[in-house]
């Protein structure tokens, strides 16, 4: 059972509660641009699964048909408990490889790009996880039913949502066994002492056993983000930038052996005298700097309105995908991907943001024609266009400054 889709409305409710709580306490941990980018990444991660079909499922079917030891009972409590614990153990190694192997870091890096730390950061997920399915294979081999495994996967991910907050202090003895906000803040920090620590999903015990645990130190406040910052609100670039730089390193790397080492060594590894595009190098890391380009109030308000419609439309597509053809779902996903990229361009104050927005609205026409009139998705698109077009006319007639203030 995929519980994530059911949990999404509660995620948004808790994000709103945390934001209000931070404001009331005078410790707001949200920035609008960063939160929009994180939610965009989370939406794209769910949407891409609608159009990426079948490969992992086919592998699972082969394992079950040919190599499964025996099917375990799906109503036995010990099966559920053992699956939950064993999956968290597998998740620990998947997560650790995602940090310590360059090829896999390119997939996982998206989750660490936010320079804020709040519940919206938990939604920031990759759209290019090509290796995670391999960690499910042992469970099918051992005979765990698919419905148990994927319910456990959902529960594991849901648990991880609440630990993405700065508002919960250390929790005493709980810190020894479970992943908590304190020890997960360490995981997201870019302070040198905290980098590549605390990989656990539910149980921090694995980190203590395998030597990757680091306690949060009061004298060393966590500073969040990457040591080589992304400095972009483009969700597509956020998913591929490490692979692009890894490709540059791969092409320039001398020797086949070194090229292969590059892929499976830690991020930033290079042969002797070889420069790397994936590592900062010797220059010091500015832990205080955050990517926060200034844009006009109008641009910010317009982006927020359009972004809210895009998120609601994403939820409608996720919930209604079963009633739409694959081609229509693919069209909707492409439109939504483009919409989130346009939002990123607005937030960066790009000169071409207005042009992209016009293209996006023009793209609505074929979407409406293909979807027909009896669809909630169609209704959302119509309302979206009805709000956007007058605003764009205002921009054109009054020549409102919609680009970055500093450009």
Summarize the SSE layout with pairings.
Layout: H1 4-25, H2 32-48, H3 55-66, H4 77-100, H5 102-108, H6 119-122, H7 137-142, H8 146-161, H9 174-177, H10 181-188, H11 205-210, H12 235-252, H13 256-264, H14 297-320, H15 326-347, H16 353-362, H17 364-371, H18 376-398
Q: Care to give the gist of this entry?
A:
The protein is mostly helical and 407 residues long.
Walkthrough of the structure:
The chain has helices spanning 4-25, 32-48, 55-66, 77-100, 102-108, 119-122, 137-142, 146-161, 174-177, 181-188, 205-210, 235-252, 256-264, 297-320, 326-347, 353-362, 364-371, 376-398. It has two domains: 4-210, no CATH class; 297-398. Helices cover 59% and strands 0% of the residues. The radius of gyration is 22 Å and the shape is globular. The protein is mostly helical and 407 residues long. It has 18 helices and no strands.
